[in-house]
Amino acid sequence: MRILLINPSLQQAEVGHYDKVVEKNRGVYPPLGLGYVYSALESQGHHLYLIDMDATPDAVVKAVTILKSKPDMICFYAMTWTFRQVCKMLEVAKRENPSIIGVIGGAQVNAFPKETL
Predict the structure, then answer these.
(1) Percentages helix, strand, coil for the chain, rounded to the nearest 5?
(2) Where are the strands (E) in the chain, listed by range?
């Protein structure tokens, strides 16, 4: 299976929509969870792409190029302040390839499972 894993941009995350305590505790976090998922999937023989939107040069161009190759699945790590960005990226992926499987994991899903659905 061809799988694209994306860590959304914390630099482009929306601000001002959350309580002050949430905004205060924002930071830059490496996609450690995606790294674990990547390792597990790689050990099963899947063909993987990993894009950290803040660390990958030309990340948007690379993501679009990979999406045009029609991967089978796209996975996102979502924090509360990147969740809207993730939803927008998933909409774009679904427009490009309606059969793509979308998976969202991370702190947003753990903290707000019902709201995430």
Answers:
(1) 45, 20, 35
(2) 2-7, 47-52, 73-77, 101-105
pLDDT tens digits, one per residue of 80-92: 888 989 999 999 9
Say which residue the tokens 């205060």 belong to.
Answer: 24
Cα 91 from Cα 76, distance rounded (Å)? 12
Average pLDDT, the chain: 87
The domain 2-116 is placed in CATH, from the list 2.60.40, 3.10.50, 3.40.50, 3.30.160, at 3.40.50
Where are the chain's structural domains?
2-116
Structure tokens at 38: 């990547």
Amino acid at 54: D
- Rounded alpha-carbon distances, angstroms, from residue 93 to 47, 58, 68, 88: 18, 17, 9, 9
**Contact between residue 8 and residue 77 where contact means Cβ atoms under 8 Å apart:** yes
In angstroms, the first-to-last Cα distance of the chain is 25
